[in-house]
Design brief:
Layout: E1 3-11, H1 28-40, E2 48-49, E3 58-68, H2 76-83, E4 88-95, E5 110-118, E6 130-131, H3 139-148, E7 172-179, E8 184-191, H4 198-210, H5 216-225, E9 240-246, H6 256-263
Parallel strand pairs: 3-9, 5-6
Antiparallel strand pairs: 1-3, 1-4, 2-3, 5-8, 5-9, 7-8
Helix pairs in contact: 1-2, 3-4, 3-5
Length: 268
C-alpha cells in the first residue's frame, strides 16, 4: 500500500537555480530526488514541493511530499541527511493519513518570507542578506509603505509575469519591517500565495522609498491601479528566505530564530 510522507527541510539556495527541476540545471528538487532514489534503492523518484523558490533563494522551512510503496529503512532520516549535500538538511519526516489527501503545495494555507538587508559591509552575510549602502535608509517611510500591504489584495502591478496567472489576488495577512540596529533590517511578509517575483519587487520598491528615489504615495498608486511602473526591477535574490509554511495538519517550530541568530543574533 502506498504511503505519503511529508519531509520538513531547509536549504541554502546559493549553489542552485531554484527549487524546480530543470534540464541541465542544478536544482534543489533534483538533488533531493537523486539522494532519495539512492537511499531507497529505486531507479527514480518524484517529489512535490510546497512552492518554487527562485535561483539563490533560501528556505529555513520547506516541505515536500512523496508516495512510497514500502516503508523506509531504519534511520532513514540520518541516512538521507548523510547522502544529501551540506546545504540541504532534513529536519522531520512525517507519515500522513492513509487517504493520502494531504498535498505539500495545495494543502498549504499560508507562506511566510523574510528578506534580510544590511547597510554595513561584512564578509559573512554575502549569501544571506542584500548589501545596500548607496544612501541612508528612511525606515519610517519604508514602514509606512509596508503597512499598506495588508490593505490590498491584487498584486498585478508587482508581478514579473502577471499574464501567466488566472488571478493575481494575494491575501497578505501580515507584513512588518524590523531592525536591531542601524545596519540590519528584516522585512517579513505572510500571505496565502505569492506571485512570481512579487516579494523581491516589493523589497526594491521599499528600498527606493527608503533612499528617496520613490515615495509612499507612488507605491500605493501601484497597489491601487495594479499597473507596473516602467522601470520596475527586483531586489537581489540572495536576501530572500522562505521561513514558514502553514498547514492545518502540521505544526512544527519555525526555523526563523536560527536565521536571525546566524545573521543578526536577535531582534528586539
Amino acid at each position: 500500500m502506498r504511503q505519503r510522507y511529508f519531509f520538513h527541510i531547509a536549504y541554502n539556495g546559493t549553489r542552485y537555480r531554484g527549487w524546480q527541476r530543470q534540464t541541465n540545471i542544478r536544482s534543489i528538487q533534483e538533488t533531493i530526488e537523486i539522494s532519495l532514489a539512492k537511499v531507497l534503492h529505486l531507479p527514480q523518484i518524484t517529489i512535490i514541493g510546497c512552492g518554487r523558490t527562485d535561483a539563490e533563494v533560501h528556505a529555513s522551512q520547506f516541505f515536500f511530499h512523496t508516495d512510497l510503496e514500502q516503508s523506509p529503512p531504519p534511520n532513514f532520516q540520518y541516512i538521507l541527511n548523510r547522502s544529501l549535500p551540506a546545504d540541504i538538511a532534513v529536519f522531520d519526516i512525517i507519515t500522513t493519513p492513509s487517504d493520502n489527501q494531504h498535498h505539500a503545495r495545495f494543502s498549504a494555507t499560508s507562506r511566510q518570507y523574510d528578506y534580510y538587508i544590511h547597510t554595513q559591509k561584512t564578509p559573512f552575510l554575502d549569501h544571506f542578506s542584500t548589501l545596500y549602502i548607496d544612501y541612508p535608509l528612511d525606515i519610517d517611510k519604508m514602514n509606512q509603505a509596508v503597512q499598506l500591504l495588508t490593505q490590498y489584495d491584487d498584486y498585478r502591478g508587482l508581478c514579473k509575469q502577471p499574464d501567466l496567472y488566472n488571478t493575481t489576488i494575494c491575501r497578505v495577512s501580515a507584513a512588518s519591517l524590523a531592525t536591531n540596529n542601524t545596519h540590519n533590517i528584516r522585512f517579513q511578509i505572510t500571505a496565502n500565495r505569492f506571485l512570481r517575483g512579487q516579494i523581491r519587487l516589493i523589497v526594491q520598491q521599499l528600498l527606493d522609498i527608503g533612499t528617496g528615489k520613490s515615495t509612499v504615495q507612488a507605491f500605493e498608486t501601484v497597489l491601487k491601479e495594479q499597473q507596473r511602473p516602467n522601470k520596475l526591477k527586483p531586489a537581489p535574490a540572495r536576501g530572500l528566505v522562505l521561513s514558514k509554511v502553514a498547514y492545518p495538519f502540521i505544526d512544527l517550530p519555525v526555523q526563523q530564530a536560527f536565521m536571525d541568530q546566524m545573521i543578526w543574533k536577535s531582534y528586539k
